[in-house]
Design goal:
Blueprint: H1 2-20, E1 27-29, E2 32-41, E3 45-49, E4 58-70, E5 74-82, E6 90-97, E7 110-122, E8 127-134, E9 140-151
């Protein structure tokens, strides 16, 4: 039983590693903006980093959709903003994203989706990122798409 779960875990983890290397650049058409990004980690906090926003436009986030696979129950997901890449200088603004409770699936992993429609403004040149927290440290894989509109600064 243990080895079967370990094999399933290794298969899932391998697939997620491939996905983390496939982050796409944002799609920008007129004022429309969307980007998909993935992250994999082996801690209780798992970040997903999006690209830096254009230096002359703000982003009005309209929708966030995430698929989340964790080794322990996912506790929360939040969208945050940083002034530098990789979330090293995070601003105080936080947008919570509800995660529904789910029981573990085969192999003891938790798989869920988090979806939020909103109107949340991010400043020009900022680095948005999503942070998923699980109850205990363990492997986690997160893939998210953020959709919004580019707007001129006031």
């Amino acid at each position: 039983m243990f080895f079967r779960r370990l094999a399933l875990f290794a298969t899932v983890a391998s697939a997620l590693v491939v996905a983390t290397q496939a982050n796409a650049a944002p799609v920008i058409v007129g004022t429309y903006w969307d980007e998909s990004a993935s992250g994999m980690c082996s801690a209780s906090l798992c970040p997903v980093f999006f690209s830096q926003l254009p230096p002359n436009k703000r982003l009005m986030v309209r929708e966030i959709n995430c698929n989340i696979l964790t080794a322990s129950q996912p506790r929360r997901a939040i969208l945050q903003i940083s002034t530098v890449a990789n979330g090293a200088d995070t601003l105080a603004r936080v947008l919570p994203i509800p995660i529904p409770y789910v029981p573990p699936v085969a192999g003891g992993f938790y798989y869920t989706s988090a979806n939020l429609q909103t109107r949340w403004l991010i400043g020009e040149g900022r680095f948005p990122y999503l942070l998923v927290e699980q109850n205990q440290s363990g492997t986690a894989g997160v893939t998210c798409t953020m959709i919004g509109d580019l707007v001129d600064p006031a």
